[in-house]
Amino acid sequence: MAKLIECVPNFSEGRNQEIVEHLAEIARDVKGVTLLDYSSDTSHNRSVFTLVGDENGIQDVAFSLVKYASEVIDLNKHEGGHPRMGATDVIPFVPIKDVTMEECIEISKKVAKKINEELQIPIFLYEESAATQNRKNLAKVRKGQFEGMPEKLQQEEWAPDFGERKIHPTAGVTAVGARMPLIAFNVNLDTDNIDVAKKIAKILRGSSGGFKYCKAIGVMLEGRNIAQVSMNMVNYEGTPLYRTFETIRFEAKRYGINILGSEVIGLTPAQALVDCAEYYLQIEDFDYDKQVLENHLLS
Amino acid sequence: MAKLIECVPNFSEGRNQEIVEHLAEIARDVKGVTLLDYSSDTSHNRSVFTLVGDENGIQDVAFSLVKYASEVIDLNKHEGGHPRMGATDVIPFVPIKDVTMEECIEISKKVAKKINEELQIPIFLYEESAATQNRKNLAKVRKGQFEGMPEKLQQEEWAPDFGERKIHPTAGVTAVGARMPLIAFNVNLDTDNIDVAKKIAKILRGSSGGFKYCKAIGVMLEGRNIAQVSMNMVNYEGTPLYRTFETIRFEAKRYGINILGSEVIGLTPAQALVDCAEYYLQIEDFDYDKQVLENHLLS
Q1: Are A151 and A264 part of one and the same domain?
Q2: Pairing status of strand B88-97 against strand B183-189
Q3: Do A297 and B241 touch (CB under 8 A)?
Q4: A104 lies in which domain range?
Q5: Do A291 and B52 touch (CB under 8 A)?
Q6: Are A52 and A165 found together in one domain?
Q7: Of A133, A149, A178, the domain-final residue
Q8: 10 Å Cβ neighbour count for B209?
């Protein structure tokens, strides 16, 4: 069975639809790759592509997109609400099927090397591909943004993983790495009190002592006038969805508040939800790879 | 995206491994088809093949297997514990992906017609393909078995759907139809009292007033000395797994008995479990086809 890898490159262009459509055309032309989705945010001036493909195809498509982006996007002229440091800002590789995290890390390094050698863009390896702890977190890597990168690259601890200590004049710096699939999972509370959502979010957040692979904030859903715990589940194996859901349920009880419902935004691997069914139905000895019919059909 | 159809033919041969292996070879040789599994039961003297393929491949493989079975299996010499009426006893077609039940019914009728025309085996259409209510149930169609078929075919209401009122001399009669995927789902109770499992099974069974698409019996798991509600879920959309699970939970409470766990035996479509996660996590507006990543990858 072919290995399947997801790649979610972020480009610093969300206003010029000609460029975005050309990126999509490039992606569609690469053999062994499917373009699942792409969307642009004009206020962020940024586009996110979701691709999936085999081991070779996913490397080819990533490089081809970065090459074109480096030719047409000039960061010196870029304005937008989202932090960014490169024409291609960040490229995560994600294991989907019959592929290990280690293999995705290898892929990320191969692509990083090629981008640097052929396009002279310096690369930081981040997340699972990071060489040191302080490069794991993308926000830390990107701090200073495009404008601050020339100076940051001179700092002792910020030599690029590939390339010299100078930015590409127009394409800046790119972060390349491997990570688990990210699931946007929100839980709605039967209250208009955002403080409750914020308190529960703090309990859940790995960074404040909660679940290691959960990022969480409390927000208001203005249209419905209810508070929501909005989460990014960055490793559904390490922190399954049901665990945060049940924790929200029992923490909200302290305030006499119930859960109204939840939302999964965008794509999710089937396994993240099947794992929850396994928990709630108390299924013994379930073998996801062997027992789920569709797993035998993926080419 | 290609339509994906499952086919689960049952053959009246489970002892001669040469014949079974040759059936497997035939299945592996058909283009557009994957042989997911095959297993033989020597006491039943019967083999079950699980195949999946596109619209054309699945018809080709079904016909090729039936043709070979009709050449090498002689029902006059068949002995075994399982009811049977044909060399190929029954051929269900099952919608898996991007295919409707109506299309699977059409496929079943095309294959049935070809088997009859080219091999002179009379066919009963059963389950969703059945022309009348009393042909839906396979047990009713097969009643009388191979030995009783010559006489049964003479009865007013038992003219075959394809073919004349006489059996194939060695290959008998075959049932062909379309049905939903079947999931074997068992729930273990914290009791050694089989009567409780039997009472709950009766509550669940469609045939005794329970859920329409649930077949259930109470059995003992001798090795663990616990009682089990053993179910065949014949349409997980009509009767989802969580509904029987929660019903067992609240019915068992009457006796002060808890659920120990459950088992899914063999294959299940991912959607049957994702539907359960949707229920327990109270996910609002989840779109299975669009939001599950793997659905974009199936060829």
Answers
A1: no
A2: unpaired
A3: no
A4: 4-178
A5: no
A6: yes
A7: A178
A8: 9
Interface of B with A (CB under 8 A): 4, 6, 34, 36, 52, 96-97, 181, 188, 241-242, 245, 259-264, 266-270, 273-274, 276-278, 280-286, 291-294, 296-299
Which of B225, B122, B236, B227 lies closest to B184, judged by CA? B236
pLDDT in tens, B270-292: 999 999 999 999 999 999 988 99
The CA-atom distances, in angstroms, between B245 and each of A149, A280, A282, B268, B280 are: 57, 9, 10, 16, 12
Kindly tell me the sign of the dihedral angle through the C-alpha atoms of B69, B72, B77, B81.
negative
ipTM of the complex: 0.81
Query: Which of B36, B278, B284 is facing A296, going by the closest CB pair?
Result: B36
Domain identity same for B168 and B187: no
A4 vs A170: which has the higher pLDDT: A170
Q: What is the mean pLDDT of residues B14-22?
A: 97
Contacts of A285 in chain B (CB under 8 A): 263
Beta bridge partners of B261: B188
pLDDT 10s digits, B48-82: 999 999 999 999 999 999 999 999 999 999 998 88
Band (pLDDT 50/70/90 cuts) for residue B254 is very high
Q: Region B165-178: what's the mean pLDDT?
A: 98
Contacts of B285 in chain A (CB under 8 A): 263
Is the distance from CB of B121 to CB of B21 less than 8 angstroms?
A: no
Note whether A167 and A196 are same-domain residues. no
Closest C-alpha among A52, A48, A49, A10 to residue A32: A52
Q: Taking an 8 Å Cβ-Cβ cutoff, which residues of chain A contact chain B?
A: 4, 6, 34, 36, 52, 96-97, 181, 188, 241-242, 245, 259-264, 266-270, 273-274, 276-278, 280-286, 291-294, 296-299
B237 pLDDT exceeds 70? yes
Q: Does A234 lie in the same domain as A110?
A: no
Looking at every residue in chain B, the average pLDDT score rounds to 95
Q: How confident is the model at residue A297 (pLDDT cuts 50, 70, 90)?
A: confident
Task: Note whether A261 contacts B277, CB cutoff 8 Å.
Answer: no
Count of Cβ atoms closer than 10 Å to residue B214 Cβ: 25
The catalytic site residues of A sit at 82
The tally of CA atoms less than 13 A away on the side-chain side of residue B251 is 20
Cβ of A97 within 8 Å of Cβ of B52? The answer is no
Percentage with pLDDT > 90 across chain B = 89
